[in-house]
Amino acid sequence: MTVEDLREPDRTAVLATVKTAELVTPDLLDRPTPCAAWTVGDLLAHMAAQHRGFAAAARGAGDDLALWQPRPPGPHTSAEYAESADEVLAAFAPGDVPERLFAMPEFGPGVTVPGYQAIGFHLVDYVVHGWDLARAVGQDYELAPACVEPVWQIVGQIPDGPERDSPESPFAHALPDTGTGSALHRILRMLGRSPNWPESH
């Protein structure tokens, strides 16, 4: 596998999130998550919206910001999440997707990135949000090194500057790297999440 084609680890990460989402019953939707402002319902609704947006971008129709907006969470959200995951995996499947241009309106009007880079963004999101969701509902979370290692490479390039102070930033400032724990735990610290959540919450 080349660095540019991250679809297989992305698929593995997405399918892991689907298994966790299947366990989200309506009584769990109001639980807090490591994403400070979001409940489990908010997190799943966001994850579903991102799947829909990336799927539209892969098909050449991602420039409509409305396609990226989450729907209000509710008892339907777990099933809706599974449908959105199927949608994005199907949209990423054609062989030329890494070479296509993806519209990314959340980054600004008219912003596009190469497909392989967009899939890298998607992989980071679903490895990290997969952990967020699993922790919030009390499930174990393990991913194969093939999923985690490319995320380590990508996350190491994300600036830890004043842009992380913005309420719109998906990541808080990095936490100190203790040099211990798994590669996933080190990734989480780099993105401002404590692997010990909720004990550290």
Automatic annotation (TrEMBL):
One of its GO terms (molecular function) is metal ion binding. It comes from the Bacteria. Pfam families: MDMPI_N. Residues 19-134 form the Mycothiol-dependent maleylpyruvate isomerase metal-binding domain. Gene3D superfamilies: dinb family like domain. This is TIGR03086 family protein. It comes from Nocardia speluncae.
